[in-house]
Amino acid sequence: MNHSLSHTIKTSTSTVLLAAAALGLLGLSGCASKVQYGDATGVETVNTDFGSSDLQMIAEKMVDDLLSSPAMRDIAPNGERPILFIESIKNKTVEHIDTESITDTISTKLLNSRRFRFVDMTRMDAVQKQLDYQKNSGLVDETKAAQMGRQLGAKFMLYGNLASITKSAGSTKDIYYKFTLKLSNIESGIVEFQSEKEIRKTRTKSLFGG
């Protein structure tokens, strides 16, 4: 092999190796990820699925409607703070939606309004165990133990449904959500308040699949 051919091969090999290294670095940089904080209350438009913006809009609308409703005169006369409990929101959509987050946000806003009080029915078993422990373990001073039968009962029940209708035509997908919230008097069974929030989301795919 002459010197010129050997030099050409070495040069070509070096060029290929440099190109491969450059591609490797480019691939690594392409795989790198960046995490940053965003506005938790900002509008979320990643896709048409139920998201944080929908939850916030529903909670705000329901709380505003309830607090401004003429029914408040009957629900909380003379500035009373009626006791509520929330029944689990029923998810009637085809999506997996954490409806407990909706109820948590609504109850938080209502509690912070100082117009209502709540009993947490989801923790009754834990409360019962603690009361039994204080009464029967022999480890708690009887004069300072919580007394059985002193809990206040809820007067109203807050409950609701989340439903959806999805339609697709060609590259367009349309999804309609409807959230319904009701507040009923436990003793009489009368529905004292009801409100709805509707949300429509449409997505159209581009011709290039974007």
TrEMBL record:
<protein>
    <recommendedName>
        <fullName>Penicillin-binding protein activator LpoB</fullName>
    </recommendedName>
</protein>
<dbReference type="GO" id="GO:0009252">
    <property type="term" value="P:peptidoglycan biosynthetic process"/>
</dbReference>
<dbReference type="Pfam" id="PF13036">
    <property type="entry name" value="LpoB"/>
</dbReference>
<dbReference type="InterPro" id="IPR014094">
    <property type="entry name" value="LpoB"/>
</dbReference>
<dbReference type="GO" id="GO:0031241">
    <property type="term" value="C:periplasmic side of cell outer membrane"/>
</dbReference>
<dbReference type="GO" id="GO:0030234">
    <property type="term" value="F:enzyme regulator activity"/>
</dbReference>
